[in-house]
Specification:
The structure holds three protein chains of three kinds.
Chain A (H helix, E strand, L loop, with lengths): L2 H9 L9 H13 L6 H16 L3 H37 L1
Chain B lengths: L26 H4 L4 E8 H8 L7 H10 L2 E10 L8 H11 L4 E9 L4 E10 L2 E11 L2 E9 L3 H8 L17
Antiparallel strand pairs in B: 1-2, 2-6, 3-4, 4-5, 5-6
Chain C lengths: L1 H15 L2 H17 L7 H24 L21 H13 L2 H11 L5 H8 L3 H21 L6
The chains are: A mainly alpha, B alpha+beta, C mainly alpha.
Chain lengths: 96, 177, 156
């Protein structure tokens, strides 16, 4: 391989996307998977879910709150973790 | 039209920021951002959420372990359509708050070519870790994180390497994709 | 997993020479991977699949961008002279010159020098005769050499 090909290898080496790239893929996956159906069926299902939650004496609502908190905590740790991971990868690359 | 999901994440319980170790003062950037994430989770919310984490899931088990000893996690992250929508002066207020004896910058990475500037700051009290600040900036994105409490940085970075897609090994005899 | 991300993003980035477009292409590729996980037979197949889909999406995005007004390469501000890591000036010049190549030879060059694929592998990925791949490589290298020499950036 001559000097130009060597330089091309270095110039075209792999780059990382933004640190929260993976988190955004996961988010978009969740959106893709849980996109609600439209129309009467959706609204009937939503109304039924509300009745069930309201009728469960608060336990269902607590469960729902817990699930929301769980998702937010996981998202927070993933954002923090991926940014930290990104910085460490950049520093490792410089040290090589 | 952006295909990126706009995400606003706001703490479900009272927005108490007693655990937050420095003020972000980045509210002005939200209006300019194409995507913004805002997380404020105090110790009460973290402990509450921990009860609903699945110990059989490796990621959730790791987070459950990390939550012990944490006082809160606070994040603001922005994405912008164009360069020049935020500047270093937006971060000066944060950096001024970190220039105190309790805080020390332990990692700094800068690439002028890509306009990237990343920092990790650690807070110590009585020789023990009591908080971490992470600032990641590039021309079209900005993330500031404050984790208050006894943070396990290695575990946190390890978590950042999991992306929910099945791990794939190198195919024999070929350069790994 | 990080290697997959880097591979997909970099293929798109070096082809489109635009970080935002590259991230959007990469997002689409991973969402598509998730939808097609059942069809993936092995890790090696996954790597091949990711490269193939990324190449296709990058070509599609490139064609879409051609229909929109583009900033001329000459109008793009040159990178700052002072840098923190190594000497990226030649590297940046090469990336810009690669970006001026036509779609097919540009992708051939990226697959060769970013992914270290040989002409047979590139031909299979791009569904192109091996002779055409080799021709693209030879001509592109000759073109780049000529442009570098005219800028006074020869062999070091």
């Amino acid at each position: 391989m001559d000097w130009l090909e060597q330089e091309l290898r270095e110039a075209l080496n792999r780059k990382d996307p933004a640190p929260d790239f993976a988190e955004r893929v996961r988010w978009n996956l969740r959106v893709q998977e849980h996109r609600p159906a439209h129309g009467l069926q959706f609204w009937l299902a939503t109304a039924a879910a509300f009745v069930i939650v309201a009728g469960a004496g608060g336990m269902g609502y607590r469960q729902h709150q817990g699930e929301v908190a769980r998702q937010q905590v996981m998202q927070a740790f993933r954002i923090a973790g991926s940014n930290l991971n990104h910085i460490q990868a950049q520093v490792r690359e410089v040290r090589r | 039209m952006t295909r990126l999901q706009r995400v606003l994440c706001i703490a479900p319980l009272a927005a108490l920021l007693y655990g937050q170790q420095f003020k972000f003062h980045l509210e002005g950037l939200a209006a300019k951002a194409s995507n913004a994430v805002d997380v404020s989770l105090g110790s009460g919310t973290l402990k509450f959420a921990a009860r609903f984490l699945d110990s059989s899931d490796p990621d959730e088990a790791a987070v459950k372990k990390m939550i012990n000893g944490l006082d809160g996690i606070y994040i603001k992250t922005f994405e912008f359509k164009r360069d020049g929508m935020w500047s270093e002066s937006d971060l000066e207020d944060i950096r001024a708050q970190l220039r105190t004896p309790e805080w020390e910058r332990i990692v700094g990475y800068k690439s002028t070519e890509e306009g990237e500037n990343d920092e990790i700051w650690m807070r110590t009290e009585n020789k023990k870790v009591s908080g971490v600040a992470i600032i990641c900036s590039a021309p079209k994105r900005l993330t500031v994180v404050n984790i208050a409490g006894a943070v396990d940085l290695d575990a946190l970075a390890e978590l950042g390497g999991h992306f929910g897609v099945p791990a794939l090994e190198k195919a024999p005899g070929k350069k790994a994709p | 997993m990080r290697a997959h991300q880097s591979m997909v993003f970099s293929l798109a980035y070096h082809f489109l020479h635009d970080r935002e477009s590259a991230e959007e292409v990469a997002q689409e590729v991973f969402l598509s991977l998730h939808r097609n996980l059942g069809a993936i037979q092995s890790p090696a197949h996954a790597g091949f699949w990711l490269r193939k889909v990324t190449v296709q999406r990058a070509f599609d995005e490139g064609r879409r961008r051609k229909r929109r007004p583009q900033v001329a390469l000459e109008d793009i501000v040159e990178p700052a002279a002072s840098v923190e890591r190594g000497d990226p000036l030649l590297g940046e010049t090469l990336r810009r010159l690669v970006a001026t190549l036509a779609d097919a030879p540009r992708m051939v060059m990226i697959l060769r020098y970013q992914e270290d694929l040989d002409p047979m592998e590139i031909a299979e990925l791009l569904d192109m005769p091996v002779a055409t791949v080799k021709s693209h490589l030879q001509r592109s290298l000759a073109l780049l050499r000529g442009k570098l020499e005219r800028r006074g950036l020869g062999e070091r």
